[in-house]
Amino acid sequence: MNGPDGKWIGYGLGDVDPKVQDMKRFLKRKFSYAAVLDDSPLYDQAMVNVVSEMQAKYGLRVTGIMNYATQVRCGYIKTAPVKPVMFTVEGHLSDMFVGPCAYTAKELENQGVVRWQPVGYDNVALPFRNQTGVNELDRLFSDTVAFPLGTPFVMAIFSQGAIVGCRFFLEQIRPENGKHHNRLKDLRGVIAFGNPYREQNVIAPWVPDPPKAGTQGISDIRMTDTPEYWREVSRTGDLYACNTADEIGLNCTAIYKIVSESSWSGGQAGMLQRVLDLLGNPFDGFIDIAIAIIRGLGFVANMGPHGTYDLGPCIDFLRQRLTN
Question: Where do the Peptidoglycan binding-like domain residues begin and end (predicted)?
Answer without folding.
Answer: 18-70
